[in-house]
Amino acid sequence: MFYGQGHAVKTVAPSDGRATEVSGISKKRLLSDDDMSSSDCTMSYMGTIARVIVLRVSVMDATEIYAIAAGGTFALLVVARFLSHLTRLKSIVSVLIAKHLTYPLSAVDAGRRAGTLSLINMIFLFIWLHLSFVADLLGISLRRCRGSHRAAGWMVMALSATHAVLMNGRTPFPLRDVGQPLRTHRTSLVTLFLQSVLFLYRNGVFTSRGCPRALVTCLVRGDDSDSDDRRTKPIKIRVALSRPLRVRPGQYINLWMRSVSWWSWAQSHPFTVMSWSPVEQSALDLFIQPRHDLTADLLRHVEVGHGVSLSFPALVSGPHGTSESTGQYETVLAVASDFGVAPVIPYLKQLIHSYNTSTSRTRRVHFVWQLRTLDTAIAVQPWLNELLQDDVLDEGYILTISIYVEFGQITGDRMPFGGHERAFVYKGSADLQDILQTEASGERIKRLTDVQEERGDVLVMAELRDRLRDIVRGYLYDNVRMLELEFQPD
């Protein structure tokens, strides 16, 4: 028999009068092995387990038991009701499918529609000579255009396969009836010819100036590098144009160099333009990381020439890509890593030029550059020096450069870079959270003490989008906006 709430249970044996105290779960055995058979022992253990379960239930409050029972009953009723509606919905959907899809349409009709949809999607695949023109037309980045182009290609393949399977042997396909496809091919050929003529005309092929030339230079020699990785040896390409181009910050060009290798005639590569000018440029500077294909072949040619600059004939298309307006922000924080400096430099040049000409609201620009070694910073030093030299209007000095190096010989935790008091090299990784907090507060901007000024907006220009997104999200109410550049690391 059980007593109370169940911390102690007293069991009385009716036959021989022996009793055993069970305290808690089970501290003593009910009967000894000498007095019990194996079957009796099993039954005794099962009885003990049942008593323990009853003890656990008895410890629960009556309100908890009622809540569990009521909640379970309610859940069962809801599930039963949902299943009844689901069965009814299934029958309605099946009737609609049969009425509007299954019976009115045949396999031949489905095959024809698949072929039509395949042709419609194929327009996006061959609408222009290069994907960069499509990206400019749609106003999207080249990365997103490539993703859409890839998705359209998979869709065309799936629809074409469906069309071939459903139409196989069902309808005649006379080879002589090629009127409509022939007209389509002729139109495509005329369009391709016009685009090619326009492309060659812009490159000055039909003039006495000739086509553009690309001067390739390796900025870091093998003996001076702190790393043996070829991807850390930057290449500079100066493209001498046949016709001047006006390139906005963040834009890129497609470069075609047929004589670099036997396969380079079939390749064109997009490169971000590092140079910027408020007027048209007759020469464009490119800062390139050697990786594979064309860039690897360029580095190999320069290394064979023992660091001598080499010139190659080239063709250029562009400029392509979008450019964001930055003059309406009071503070601009530009963050990049390694070769991501290429799209940042033009924006910095434009910001300094706008400040010198009083055409923007920008009062502070902070460039944070995260590097693995100092080799890349040394290669880019001429561009950085040019930025600091331009930032001299009334000794305003709106530009500050912070370079963080993970590996390399650095004296102390901080040292000046290039003899400037506004550019410093730090050891380790940048604390982006602390840097953004400081820039968002506006404490680095010199303000008039007797005038109450309203704090302006802050722009975070990022090449490290994945790292900065979570940080910037916490400062959205402080008028902080993030701009993702066209070039992003893989």
UniProtKB/TrEMBL annotation:
This is ferric-chelate reductase (NADPH). It is a multi-pass membrane protein. Signal peptide: none annotated. Keywords: Cell membrane, Electron transport, Membrane, Oxidoreductase, Transmembrane, Transmembrane helix, Transport. The chain crosses the membrane at residues 65-83, 119-139. It is an enzyme of class 1 (oxidoreductase). The keyword Oxidoreductase applies. Pfam families: FAD_binding_8 (PF08022), NAD_binding_6 (PF08030). It comes from Paracoccidioides brasiliensis. Belongs to the ferric reductase (FRE) family. It is found in: Cell membrane. Its EC number is 1.16.1.9. Residues 168-326 form the FAD-binding FR-type domain. GO terms for molecular function: ferric-chelate reductase (NADPH) activity. One of its GO terms (cellular component) is plasma membrane. It catalyses: 2 a Fe(II)-siderophore + NADP(+) + H(+) = 2 a Fe(III)-siderophore + NADPH. GO terms for biological process: copper ion import; intracellular iron ion homeostasis; iron ion transport.
